[in-house]
Specification:
Layout: E1 4-9, H1 14-25, E2 29-35, H2 47-50, E3 60-61, E4 73-76, H3 80-93, E5 97-99, H4 106-115, E6 120-123, H5 129-145, E7 150-157, H6 167-179, H7 184-187, E8 188-189, H8 195-198, E9 204-210, E10 216-224, E11 227-235, H9 239-252, E12 258-260, H10 262-266
Parallel strand pairs: 1-2, 1-4, 2-3, 4-5, 5-6, 6-12, 7-9, 8-9
Antiparallel strand pairs: 7-10, 10-11
Helix pairs in contact: 1-9, 3-4, 5-6
The structure holds nicotinamide-adenine-dinucleotide.
Enzyme class: oxidoreductase
Family: Belongs to the DapB family.
GO molecular function, one term: NADP binding
Length: 269
């Protein structure tokens, strides 16, 4: 079977370096290109050196145009503005895209959905298998307990993470709100002030921890007087996200245009 060639954008970032390792180790994937923005201190370094594999014949470039014949699927873990620009590029050049970046505003999300009419895109704030199972479990928890319990979503990440709450926490909130037939914007609470009064109407409250090197932890808490249910996922290595991205890239290689999520990639829906 022909290998799927991937380009990794954000190649010298925390996820980028892990994605390079995952691509090099994957039997059905070939690392076709590694892309970083101009100005990154690691530009010009061989991508292989980034992960200690020595030369792998893939050069770090700052522009997908330079390597567009070298890959079939683009994997993006960068920043929201960069992702939207890359999605425009992918739509123009007919390259499927796996997007792991988080922190999009509603305008940027709308733009990605629009571009997905012209190319297949997987947009997943968390590519770990366990988190996508957690999304599924949340539907059941919200159906059974969501109408009468206090609902809290607590997430923790490393000190360098830029967006808060995390894209995963927001997706957890959306899954619960959708199940309850509510709009997350209307029931989300991001601070503690007035929380006691807010509990009188149904709300989903978010708390964020940013500390040390936490890779990613998410808990949904459904609490009544007398009992509570907690559902927690803990990621201990970025490799779990990177392996999910490889699955998304393989799945995308034979997909029609459209916007997909990780649950579709994993066959949960
Ligand atoms: P990071 O800051 O370590 O890396 C981002 C890299 O992208 C940097 O090296 C930066 O120079 C590069 N970059 C920015 N703009 C670029 C452009 N225009 N072209 C090429 N490269 C560009 O961040 P990180 O911890 O690796 O996380 C990256 C993103 O992935 C964040 O949004 C994070 O929340 C998200 N993330 C998603 C998942 C998931 O499973 N979906 C898991 C972990 C992190």
């Amino acid at each position: 079977m022909e290998k799927v060639r991937v380009a990794i954008v954000g190649a010298s970032g925390r996820m980028g370096r892990t994605l390079i390792e995952a691509a090099l180790a994957h039997p059905q994937i070939r690392l076709g290109a590694a892309i970083e923005r101009a100005g990154s201190t690691l530009m010009g370094v061989d991508a292989g050196d980034l992960v200690g594999h020595g030369s792998i014949g893939v050069t770090l470039v700052d522009n997908p145009d330079l390597v567009r014949d070298d890959f079939d699927v683009l994997i993006d873990f960068t920043s929201p503005d960069a992702t939207v620009e890359l999605a425009v590029w992918c739509a123009t050049h007919g390259k499927p895209m796996a997007i792991g970046t988080t922190g999009f505003n509603s305008h940027q999300k709308g733009r990605i959905a629009e571009l997905a009419q012209d190319l297949p895109i997987v947009l997943a704030p968390n590519m770990a298998v366990g988190v996508n199972l957690l999304f599924k479990l949340l539907e059941t928890a919200a159906q059974v307990m969501g109408e009468y319990t206090d609902i809290e979503i607590i997430e923790g990440h490393h000190r360098y993470k830029k967006d808060a709450p995390s894209g995963t926490a927001l997706r957890m909130g959306e899954v619960i709100a959708d199940t309850l037939g509510r709009d997350l914007e209307e029931c989300a609470i991001y601070g503690r002030e007035g929380i006691t009064e807010e509990r009188d109407r149904q709300t989903i409250a978010f708390s964020t921890i940013r500390a040390g090197d936490i890779v990613g932890e998410h808990t949904a808490l459904f609490a009544d007087i007398g009992e509570r249910l907690e559902i927690t996922h803990k990621a201990s290595s970025r490799m779990t996200f990177a392996n999910g991205a490889m699955r998304a890239a393989l799945w995308l290689a034979s997909r029609e245009n459209g916007l997909y999520d990780m649950q579709q990639v994993l066959g949960f829906k």
